[in-house]
Amino acid sequence: MDYLNNKYSNRADFVLRQTWKNIEKMYNSEAALYDVTFPIGFTLISIDIENGSPSTSIGPTMGLESNSLSRILNSMENKNLIMRRPNPDDGRGIIIYLTKLGIEKREIVIKKIKHFKKLVRSRIDESDLEAFHRVTFKINEIIEEGDVFKN
Amino acid sequence: MDYLNNKYSNRADFVLRQTWKNIEKMYNSEAALYDVTFPIGFTLISIDIENGSPSTSIGPTMGLESNSLSRILNSMENKNLIMRRPNPDDGRGIIIYLTKLGIEKREIVIKKIKHFKKLVRSRIDESDLEAFHRVTFKINEIIEEGDVFKN
What is the value of pTM for the model shown? Predict the structure, then answer.
């Protein structure tokens, strides 16, 4: 018997992985109908709609390496969703602005996210959702303390 | 204001993503001390220790595309953690077996997973963890029904 099938159901770590992967797949399928991807949608909502966002601040907000973000931004530029402009306050810096099309797609992304959120709330007890948030908060806290594997 | 920072704290989907990413990073750091990676560790525990596992069954168990799995298996073969053998019951099939070193590393992986699980259980209420599992189960159920974005 392999270890995984045996112990899957009560292990928070692999449950988180599997659930996130299922959500990502669902969002990616929906995004494809609008000629974008989940990473593009996620980037669209991570850019300040009025003032743009410095390219260096987007990756950390999203928890992405700069290489991965770079690839996404190139694809978004090709799709005419963003513009890159020099940062007036920083000679070497770049500000990413949404185009008109980018703003339109961003509105769709937010609509989809809200729709899923509403569905989740309509099907799951409020008190269970609160417990869910306490658990994930606590898991992140345990990891951030940085000594899970120390002793 | 960007949408994300505003709404982050009560959105199950992005909380799942962020929490999973933090867990993956933690496991990857620890894995590096043993000259492996999280995906290698995950593959080690997905292979049947006695009978090996058909290469075609490992990917689906892990929720991985065959391309990604292929890359991981090549790296594991280079590190002498697995052997590929023809499947006697299927002329074109391959069975993946763990080597002695693979079995040793697998034991370490299981120890680390159990350690984190124990820590999580010692710090989080049993009833909250049960609610957490109810929520993730329900979210997966909602997605599997396949009509989140229909109508």
Answer: 0.89
